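Researcher: We're teaching a course module on how sequence relates to structure. For the next exercise, students receive a sequence and then see the predicted structure as tokens, so they can try to spot secondary structure elements on their own. Here is the exercise chain.
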Amino acid sequence: MVSGDIMPIQIIETKRLTTDNFWLKDLSGNLDYASMDKVLHDILPLRNEAIVRAYLYALLQANPKTVEELVQMSDNAATLEDIFVRNGWTAKWEARGEARGEARGKEQEAREVIRKALKKGMAVADIAYLTGYDTAAVEAYKRQLDVK
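Model: And here is the predicted structure for the students to work with:
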């Protein structure tokens, strides 16, 4: 422990860690290709997505050159894409992207309806009722469009 600072700090000498502390040792920045491949295969079975994601992030930050080498090397190695696909992350990200795209499309469509209704002189309360927006949102959009 280092004391005398605002908060206590613990310094970990990764070279002195035993193999029992492989999780910490992997974050040393000294992982070679074979070790990285083994680590990636070891974490794939873990089902706690938050832990896997946090560990992967720290591992990749600590070992960027090895990650590049891993991606460029053997077809048998676990690539990042393999990990993302096996953990279902790719599908989740695609679904999120599609949902965001659909939401944006619906938002744009609703704004276009509001714009047209305002230009026709419809009352804000009527537009809010028809579109499902509250009157404050329709009023705000009306101010953006500068429709009188």
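Model: If you want an answer key for the exercise: The first helix runs from residue 22 to 25. Residues 115 and 142 are 8 Å apart (CA to CA).
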